[in-house]
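Researcher: Batch entry, complex prediction.
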Amino acid sequence: MRAIIRLIEGLSVGGAFLSAAGMIFIVCLVVIEIFLRSVLNTSTLVSSEYGGYALVYLILTGLAYTMKEDGLIRINLLTSHFSENGKRIADIISGILGAAITAFALNYTVQMVYETWDLEMTADTIAETPLWIPQLAIPVGLALLLLQIIAFIARRAINDK
Amino acid sequence: MISDPLMLAVVLVGGMVLFLLSGLWIGFSLYAAAICGMLFCKMNLPPTISVWDKIGDLMANSLWNTMNSWPLSALPLFILMGEILYRTSISTRLLNGLVPWLSNIPGRLYHINVVACSLFAAVSGSSAATTATVGKITFNELSERGYHKSLAIGSLAGSGTLGFLIPPSLIMIIYGILSDTSIGQLFIAGVIPGLTLAGVYSVYIIIRCMMDPTLVPQEKEEFTTAQRIESLKDLFPVFLLITVVLGGIYAGLTTPTEAAVIGVLGALGIAFWFKNLTLSNFKEALLSAVKTSGMICFIICGAAFLSQVVGFLGIATAISKYIATLNLSPYMLIIVLGIMYVMLGMILDGISIVVMTLPIVLPIVTAAGFDPLWFGIFVVFMVELSQVTPPVGFSIFVIQYITGDDVKDILKATFPFFVIMVLMVILVTIFPEIVFYLPEKMIGT
Amino acid sequence: ADLKMDCNAIYGATNFHSQGAKLFADKVAEYTSGSVQITVHPGGSLGFKGPELLKTVKDGTLPMSDILMGVVSGSDQVFGVSSMPLLAKDYAEAKKLYEAAKPYYDKACRRWNQKMLYAAPWPPSGLFTKEPLNTAADFEGLKTRTYDKNGAELLRAAGASPMSLPWGELYSALQTGLVDSVLTSAVSGKDGKFWENLKYFTKINYAFPLNMMVINQDYWDALNPKQQEAVLKAAAEVEAYQWEQSAKSNDDSLKILAEKGIVITEPSKEISDMLNRDAKLMLENTLKGAKKGFKAAIKAYEK
Ligand code: NA
Ligand code: NA
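Model: Structure tokens for the complex:
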């Protein structure tokens, strides 16, 4: 059990590094764009398009890590008064609800990406990017998040901090 | 099944409060409330389409459209800039450098939130980025120096919202396009109210600290002019960073979104210059920025989906339409609209508030004799207020994340600054010259 | 049976396409004695942006939507016909192009499980600039904000450096000099108060991009024949009215621009020759790799 939890958490950290790479990608993209524009008087024409895609990637692949590091905040106005056991149960219920919403969204984003690919939808930009490529980040990120939530529930269930 | 939009609003708010109080993560709470709203609403679907498919497709689309946004990508970058400044101790230097200059002003370093947010507001068009970046730089420093948490939190929450009022401002751009008002004039019109609001925050800090000197750490040092000049070398790099970022925008080299990248590179450059940059603190800054961005954007996604559902249910439109039927006197109208916006601001994000209400509200307001330019500033104030009101208040969430404090304490700390904002709105309503002075001056020349 | 439908409209409530949608909703309510009710949500307040709309209506996530054809050309190429540069050079030609391509639009809509109710053009795009455009050489180094890939390609061929920039960032970009020219319609120029930063408008009549109103097929099938007939009647009336409105709002906007000090000129022969040549080349290149529907529509128009 613990080994599986650690494996999932390892995946979340891997996602975080992808996410960090996304940030560095935007920095490079903008530097190139500003250079082209101010020195060579031309433009990549794609920096705002790819910048948007990079944001999708960096946020979605980073979500599981945010969850793992207890970064997704919640309001503990009521739950802070619960007993240790009560808190555990509340956490497990929240975890199941969160997992259900994530699984629901995952199902429909997989469909969205599949159809976008199947219908050969592309962006209306000069790059004509096939949209399923940037969209793919969403189900990947949600799958990582779902695993991380399951790990969270498992940790609370076996009462492991 | 409910078809009355006002009843649906009650269901939506009730559900959301329930989910939030149960300790469900905020982003999920917003999604859950929105799903409930869709399920309770009478959708009139043809037999071939199931309600679950409709909700699921909307959710998938909303995730993609909300995150596939170039302007929003400035958010993680500004957060990264703040993290770099914080982890390489440049923020410590900044505060060290400011101590000698603020030593004679009551409240001393409390003013740093006001000053830093005003400066940062000139670069960033969003309040979440302003609060997260400045909060990261100042909050721990203030706590470590023995400053009182509540005033530090309150001043951060209040000043963080200046991001919308001081140009560039995302909300003003949207308002300008929707209302056929000059975005340039809106930008200029926001300057005096923005700086006045910042000034009033500072005055409030001074009064609080004079009434209760224990709020400020006791050891008070006297500084000589030589020491002040010496401190400039700690302040200089950050001023240089601000100049480069702002200069890039105003010289036409970068867009405000691209300026975030300049900010990151500038922060790295300074850290390198002070020989504080190591691979390990750069990695920490990156991972921490990933975490903070994920936290904010997850809530943004939830709020965007909720706003979408509110749009489908017609809640904002129904309320605005109802007010239109009341035939109120001009000042009564503004008061009622103010109350409406505060209420909508509890559940909607800023952009949605403007987009959903403006088509109905603006004609009533102009018919009542108010200038669209003035109303634009009024609306920006309303959006600022929405950042600090529960249950959905972005500034509150960001501060909860940075400080780890209880929402109750944060709300208590923020309340005086909320009141100051409301007073500012009243002031601007009674003396609209505060808004018109600069734009009229500019036209004259 | 009574039917209530949400209709997405991308542009703000005062834009003439959004007002056309509103007019359509009112007429439908009138002709069906209130049994079909359409709620128009302007300003993109339902959270949709554009490129996804064909699919969104296909899945019934949105029952109805106002769509700028060009932005869904990535879903079905035929919708890119009306945004091909300098293919139609005035309203009469734009109408002819629409009528020639209409069977192919309808066919594409059927493939995407929806029905096109009416379509109307944006007023023609021209070039707003800081400096006058007299010769082909004046395009050299122009930093132009364009809104689609065709505009970017054409301007690049003419020697300018096109830039893609969100509309929301345009105002500050013009002010700071990040861009010095914009390819857009007189109406958008008026709405964006371009006289605050720009001085000239050259009427190159770049394109008359179409906006269409579509309804999901399942929702359409849920209407009884009488309701369908009433909706089509409303659609035909709104279509005729919107074509007039488009031309009228173009004239009105040009008048306002002139009053505010924008110098409005026809392009010189040298400029229009160059642009026509580049546009023709672009069309040939596009046709080479084009899908069937796109080719057929262009062929029907050139006949
Ligand atoms: Na700002
Ligand atoms: Na709020």
